[in-house]
Design brief:
alpha/beta; Peroxisomal Thiolase, Chain A, domain 1; 2 domains; 11 helices; globular; binds acetyl coenzyme *A; transferase; cytoplasm; acyltransferase; fatty acid biosynthesis; multifunctional enzyme
Amino acid sequence: MIPVKLSALGIYLPTQVMTNHDLAKIVDTSDEWIRTRTGIIERRIASSQESTSTLATAAAKQVLDKRGIDLLDIEMILVATMMPDMPFPSVACKVQDNIGAFNAFGFDISAACSGFVYGLETAASFIKAGAVRNALVIGAEVLSRCIDWQDRSTCVLFGDGAGAALLESGEENCFLGSVLRADGSGTDLLYMPGGGSKQPTSVQSVENRQHFLKMNGPELFQAVVPIVCEAITDTCNKAQISIEDVELIIPHQANIHIIEEVAVYLGIPFERFMCNLHKYGNTSAASIPIALYDAVQDGKIVAGDYVMMVGFGAGLTCGASLIRW
Ligand code: ACO
């Protein structure tokens, strides 16, 4: 097995900030409700000139500037997203062209909020097997384009953003263990009905608001807590690392109370969980790389630390990955 390291991180967040107070002007909600029920205070919203591929490209460029790698040496690009620029071609192909990584192949990963972890493990497996020497893994979303701004139960939750990581073959393996899971019986808890082969776009589908994200929040909340706990525990067991030795857990940033419940269930102090959803809301596949980046910037992770990333989302999907920083 070829050892894999995570050599650089980058993020991009649109400059436009939308606060809870801004939202209270467009739907029947309040800063108090959103803060207390979710932990979110503000989120970023992409401009009309931006799209998932432009956010992904900006995050990728930051990684490449930091690492200083020759663009023609990039071999694989994976973009995790549930809101691509368009159904096809992939965002990965747009990014490849935008950054000039002309020798790379790439594809998108549709695993909703678990997508970045799915991408990391896919890329790490390719490198471990010797199929490629490096891979750019990006989580990027412009969910503001599929949010129903008349639905207060969902529009307050989400935000736009992108995060990227470069994985390379190295001396020491940093990817210690993972689990990737799916439970298709939960597809109706979070989905977008229109625009695909089942319900193609039509005047009627637009009138019936079928091109917006639909979510059963309370049921999803109940479903994800045990799934996330099991994924964390099973990943530790696989890697033969005690959960007590994991310095930081970086969960998908959906709701602070999900993170609190997971902490209680696992008996781990809440302080060992990374939380930045108050600044960005739920950015789906981008939330874990953005939180990882912030954790490094804030000095919450130092060399040698064990870091657990865990994503969960539509599908239902779940993925956990344990790395040594
Ligand atoms: N402002 C004010 N009131 C609201 C709002 C709002 N924005 N939204 C809902 N309410 C009202 C409801 O109408 C309801 O009123 P009622 O009691 O008079 O009927 C009341 O608040 C309670 O509604 P619930 O939906 O039960 O509120 P809950 O406390 O469950 O919070 C939430 C809802 C925040 C969506 C929560 O269930 C949640 O976070 N679920 C998990 C969602 C999740 O994990 N999603 C992401 C996973 S996948 C991915 O990220 C893509």
